Amino acid sequence: MAECGASGSGSSGDSLDKSITLPPDEIFRNLENAKRFAIDIGGSLTKLAYYSTVQHKVAKVRSFDHSGKDTEQDHEPPYEISVQEEVTARLHFVKFENTYIEACLDFIKDHLVNTETKVIQATGGGAYKFKDLIEEKLQLKVDKEDVMTCLIKGCNFVLKNIPHEAFVYQKDADPEFRFQTNHPNIFPYLLVNIGSGVSIVKVETEDRFEWIGGSSIGGGTFWGLGALLTKTKKFDELLHLASKGQHTNVDMLVQDIYGGAHQTLGLSGNLIASSFGKSATADKEFSKEDMAKSLLHMISNDIGQLACLYARLHCLDRVYFGGFFIRGHPVTMRTITYSINFFSKGEVQALFLRHEGYLGAIGAFLKGAEQDNPNQYSWGENYAGSSGLMSSSPELCPTQRARSGTFDLLEMDRLERPLVSLPLLLDPPSYVPDTVDLTDDALARKYWLTCFEEALDGVVKRAVASQPGSVDAAERAEKFRQKYWNKLQTLRHQPFAYGTLTVRSLLDTREHCLNEFNFPDPYSKVKQKDNGVALKCFQRVVHSLDALGWEERQLALVKGLLAGNVFDWGAKAVSEVLESDPQFGFEEAKKKLQERPWLVDSYSRWLQRLKGPPHKCALIFADNSGVDVILGVFPFVRELLSRGTEVILACNSGPALNDVTHSEALLVAERVAAMDAVVRSALREERLLLVQTGSSSPCLDLSRLDKGLAVLVRERGADLVVIEGMGRAVHTNYHAALRCESLKLAVLKNSWLAERLGGRLFSVIFKYEVPAE
Amino acid sequence: MLKLVGGGGGQYWACSVTGTGLGGEGAVFEVARVGDPGKAGCVGPAWGCVGIPDSAPGAGMLQAGAAGPARGGQGAEEEGEPAGGGEERQPRHPPAPALRLLNRKPRGRSGEIKTTENDLQRGRLSRGPRSAPPALGMGDHGGLPERSDPHAPGSPAVAGAVAVNGLLHNGFHPTPVQLPRLCGRGPAGVGDAGPPRLPLQPELQPQPPPPQHDSPAKKCRLRRRMDSGRKNRPPFPWFGMDIGGTLVKLVYFEPKDITAEEEQEEVENLKSIRKYLTSNTAYGKTGIRDVHLELKNLTMCGRKGNLHFIRFPSCAMHRFIQMGSEKNFSSLHTTLCATGGGAFKFEEDFRTIADLQLHKLDELDCLIQGLLYVDSVGFNGKPECYYFENPTNPELCQKKPYCLDNPYPMLLVNMGSGVSILAVYSKDNYKRVTGTSLGGGTFLGLCCLLTGCETFEEALEMAAKGDSTNVDKLVKDIYGGDYERFGLQGSAVASSFGNMMSKEKRDSISKEDLARATLVTITNNIGSIARMCALNENIDRVVFVGNFLRINMVSMKLLAYAMDFWSKGQLKALFLEHEGYFGAVGALLELFKMSDDQ
């Protein structure tokens, strides 16, 4: 905690603002490395953006310098792990009330170490007003950027980089928020920005957009007219009034004109025929609430109608709404949605954005960072560092005064490589990675949140254990626990806080939180050991497979894939077994497997298919380290290679649980190659390629994959996709439709999920799919 | 301006019309508040209309009113209405007996033959506050004094005539403080003068005895048919009615080719309707005949006559129906063709209270048919349709006639309480494109809340004096000038009422500014939606109609400007003289169609 604005305490006025206690670690994070600044000052909120670098530890693996012979010895690990410092780029966005602006600027000045920055990009209506203050406080030159340009740049950015950025709002539905999966091509779209007036902009490409219309009836009309009618001064208070009012007392409805006959005429009697039509009388008093409600309806309907007319004229069916009139207010999102549905008869979709408030700041930042080419990268929302939608940052609450001011944060990590959609998806726009929407499914949500809560102790323990040399590991692990626990509590109350809540998002959030407290790879040692053990068994397993007849071998290979998959520290049931019985071996695992017929069993068709011509190229998404990848995946790969099928083996770019990472997989492949001629020659001849997925998640989003992978898939003409493991093939992608054959394999290592799917613990999913002609 | 200003008294026009016996209702008159020169009423006593100039002395008006009882012979009553607004007075005079006391004399169209009407007219004129046009505030089309119209029923004659028959002495009814009140007594054909009627509001009047039409139908109907001259013609009276959310629009066809025989045959209450409607320009506290809109010498359904345009607020509907009941309108066995939402809303009341079966009609059908009809017959030799030349140049902007002979396709924007937008491709091929709830009702509703005004006229008057740029936030208020990135002029409104977000600004603006801003906001919004619809429908002519445009030059010019400016001259805004009455005309046309169908 730091007392903010101490340096300015001598100056007069606003002493209250200056004495605000800011929790700097939590709000203006990574300020010491901050480089570029941008600021968007609106009517009531300021959004500050800066670019910074984050230094954190990563576990790197590399093979020992000496030749592979040593690894035959039991005591030697297959490769060495070194923890290194890595610097990654991160965008920080902080939103706060304008009243705090001076205090915040002081704070930034005091904590800003880097002085190379000379300019701050500014946008928003208040940029002019605060120009001098900013220049004086930060000693930066204010560079004004066009509001709409920034807004659109920001909008493009979030739509491209943040999954579940856009949502539709359904008032009486549960959940109220229905998030959209990102359209691979976000253009063209209509952006309706409802500030004091309304701007309607058609966005066609990254750089091309056109103001196609607008309306003077906007947020300012609601506010101004509302203030006149109700003597209520604040926008939020007006909205509050409106939410309590009955517009039918003020508006003339169809039924007021038609009487009861509207029903027989097929008219909806509740339609407003004339806004404020009943107030044309001197001898009646109208309540503030009713007038505010009527005004809200009038303005929302009008904007919705115009938006629909423009959408139709330009043949667009997606309309994103932004501006202070919308900004997360359920009441305005509701009325706008109603209006759009009404006027477009459902043909146009009203979409809102989770980070709508940040668009201007993001855009201004991007404008200033153009020379860094920010758009060539992919970015990912950091769940650990971002406040959720409609969240008042419960993590921060203890440090705040009773004042209404809250700080809202968004952090975006720059990803190493750009992400694209898998070219093999049947219909990219309709692809939804996640199998169960926990926002939607309250029962499942409850189960999984509890499940993650219960698993937290184990994760903390493992995190501490992974860094035996560290003095503060326990302390950091405790912080991690607190942070993740808080996130889970937030999600219990606001499941929509980070987009659609899924098992994937829960897992990803945990990874982000672990990284936050410098536990980059708690499983590195475990993986190292497992890989070592499994490598030792490789040749034996291969020999016994080779001894089998063709048909038997095919089944054994598949069983091997499945058995390997039982080795999964991510699953509670398994991690308990593993912890208690380290000798739990490959053969044991096989015994645990369900006997055929499996819960989902299309093995016969798969076998039939194998009797036919070989696949050209198989793309395999590997799951766990150790037994899974070495004794399950590699023999399977070897068989495919023998059939003349090329193989692309895709592993995670970064660590997640005990999942095999790309760099680990490279080392493992090298070791396997040393033992096996088929793999060796395939690697040499590039018939076996190891690529990274671009992900650091135990799950798999096929719409956000490493660009290199996508290119390779296209080049090699992949015609088979194998997805293995519960995280990738059940929690996600279970329903994914591909343009080529696919194999989804998993062992259900969670009894709740197994039950849900009609099976039991260790039930087997073997889903072989061939796309319809 | 045919401003209705109740001088007091609780007369309601609705009480005074269309009862079978055409009730006496002093309230027929609009009395200008003395000392309110801006709001001259148009006194329409008895058989004519006299616009009262600002300076019209109250006494004059009252005397004029006193002329009304000339119709006492038909059961006119009087009702006093002190000039300054005051309580009703008891009639001094027994209402004359039934209508048929009127002698039917052959009557030429020129009206040189003395008729009751003429006499009455004279009677009135002789003491009426002279016939200066009631022109205030009518915008371009100020009210025309009826007497200037040779075809107006009561008009031909020039004054001075003294009472000729028994009726006329009523015209000289001496009560200066009383206004005539027509009291339609019993059913048609009922003989003698009834007993004096109390000058109460009709709803308080004793129910007249049930008409003798216990033998309801055939005979009567037959005669009715003959009344209108041909079997396949509907019986008189011919009405078309459009009951909207705020206003009821009524058109009435007054046959002018009535033969002596017909006149003889004309039942009393029918006649009294005719006389009453055509001789007054204001009915009750709130009813108005838009004299300036009257279509003269029109042939409809084979009959020649004048088409009258009357409006009153929808809230008076119940009194209107009550009146219909009391005056036993149902005995006329006419079909009441009605459109607008109110046709549905009040259908039950019409039936149960007044024993009248409404013939309900689709309002959009009526609107289009009425519009096409009125445009085709023209406006007394002038074109019905007009536009504004040089709409973007205030200096050179002026009204010009427009020939709408080939109107299709057109976008028809009907601005009543709310707004409907139709794309019309041919006489009977159209679709409702959309509508908006931000219409005339919103303008008036908001103005009432913001400024405390009470009437449309008042609101417009304030708006005319205000400056909306004090209230609205302009592009230049935000960007310091034009917003070049988007090609927006600095003078464009960025946010309607946007300046009102600031308390200082709220404290510094006038009611007039607010009224103006409301008008501009609503108008521009309609323009904007209409323009988008025109683009979507690929139509370049936009016809604006509806009573929101009544006496509302500001909005018309704004719409003309908006269509032209934002479309870079591609769109043309067109307007029609009978802006709000097409639905009612369309309803009337349906009456003729019905008869054809029979």
Automatic annotation (TrEMBL), chain A:
It is found in: Cytoplasm. It comes from Camelus dromedarius (Dromedary). Activity is strongly promoted by Co(2+), Ni(2+), Mg(2+) and Mn(2+). Activity is inhibited by EDTA. Its EC number is 3.1.3.-. GO terms for cellular component: cytosol; nucleus. GO terms for molecular function: ATP binding; hydrolase activity; metal ion binding; pantothenate kinase activity. InterPro entries: ARMT-1-like_metal-bd_sf (IPR036075), ARMT1-like_metal-bd (IPR002791), At2g17340_3_helix_bundle (IPR035073), ATPase_NBD (IPR043129), PanK_long (IPR015844), Type_II_PanK (IPR004567). Phosphatase which shows a preference for 4'-phosphopantetheine and its oxidatively damaged forms (sulfonate or S-sulfonate), providing strong indirect evidence that the phosphatase activity pre-empts damage in the coenzyme A (CoA) pathway. Hydrolyzing excess 4'-phosphopantetheine could constitute a directed overflow mechanism to prevent its oxidation to the S-sulfonate, sulfonate, or other forms. Hydrolyzing 4'-phosphopantetheine sulfonate or S-sulfonate would forestall their conversion to inactive forms of CoA and acyl carrier protein. Its cofactor is Mn(2+); Ni(2+). It comes from the Eukaryota. This is 4'-phosphopantetheine phosphatase.
